[in-house]
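Practice problem: ABI gene family member 3
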Amino acid sequence: MAELQQLQEFEIPTGREALQGNYSSLLRVADYCEDNYVQATDKRKALEETMAFTTQALASVAYQVGNLAGHTLRMLDLQASALRQVEARVSTLGQMVNMHMEKVARREIGTLATVQRLPPSQKIIAPESLPPLTPYYRRPLNFGCLDDIGHGVKDLSTQLSRTGTLSRKSIKAPATPGSATLGRAPRIPEPVQLPVVPDGKLSAASSASSLASAGSAEGVGGVSTTQEQAVLPPPPPPPAASDGFLPPPPLGELCLPPPAPELPMPLDLPPPPPLDVDDLGLPPPPPPGFGPEEPSWVPDAYLEKVVTLYPYIRQKDNELSFSEGTVICITRRYSDGWCEGVCSEGSGFFPGNYVEPSC
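Answer key — C-alpha cells:
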C-alpha cells in the first residue's frame, strides 16, 4: 500500500515533470541546431553535431517515457491486487452474512420444534356446578307424524287377500261365464227332467228316448271320473216319485217292466215346456285339479315346454345332460342360443337347437 502511495504521489508526477522539462530543452536544442546549420561554413560538421544532439535527445526522452510507463504499470498492478483483495474481503463478508442468517433461521426452526410445556397453573378446571340431568323415560314412537310425507300408494293387500293368488294350474283352466267365483265350490246345474207318460202308456220308443235324454243329461252335468267325484260334491238326489217324475232306467236294463194298471188320464195336462238350451246354461269348466297332474319337478312358472331331438352330454357342471325325447321346461332364453330349464334330471343350461316345442 505504501509503494502504491509513493508511486501515485512521487514517482509518476516526477516523471511527468521531467518529460515536460525535456520538451522545452528539445525546443531550444532544435533552434540552436537550425541556426548553427545556417550560419556554419562547414555544413557537414554542423549536420553531424545536429545528429548527435538528436540521438541524445531521443535516448533521453525514450528513457524517461519508459521509466514513466513502468511506474504506471506498477501502479496499475498494485491497484488490481488491491481490488482483488477488496473483492475477496467482500465475498468473505457475504459468506459470513449468509452463515449468520442460516444460524438465525436454524435457531428459529429449533424454537418451533421445541416442546411447549404448559405451566403447572394452566390445568383443566372442573365446573363449579354441573347442569341437572333430566330423568330418562321411554317415549312411544308415533308413526302418525309421517302420514304427510311422500306420496300415496294404492293398497292392494285387501284385494289380494280376497282373491288370493292364482296358481299355474288354475290359470291353465279356461274361464267361462258359467264358472263359479274364486274360492267357492262350483255349482253343478241339476239335470232337467223331461215329462213322461204314465206307466201304462210307456213303450219301447219312449223308453229309448228317455234313455237317450238321461244319457245326454248325465254327459252334460254328470261326472265320469273317480277323481272328480272325490273333489266335487255329489249331485243332488233325483226328485221323489210323488212329484210325478220317474228316474230313467239304467242302461243295462233294456227289458220293459210289466204293464201297470191303467190310470185315468188327467183331463187338463199342461203341454211340456220347450227345451231351451239357453236356460240350461253352459257346462261348468273342470276344477283346477281335474286336468292331468304335472310331475313334481315341473316349476310353477316357465316359458315353454320342449322335447329334446338329440342326446346331449353336459360339458360343464351347470349344464344338463339328457337323452332323446326328454321333456324340459324352459325358464329362460339367452341371446346366444342357449336356454336354461328344468327336467326330471335337474336344472341347468342346454343348447336351444337340440329341442323343439312340445305338442
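Discussion: The mean pLDDT is 71. Students who identified this feature from the C-alpha cells alone can consider the problem solved.
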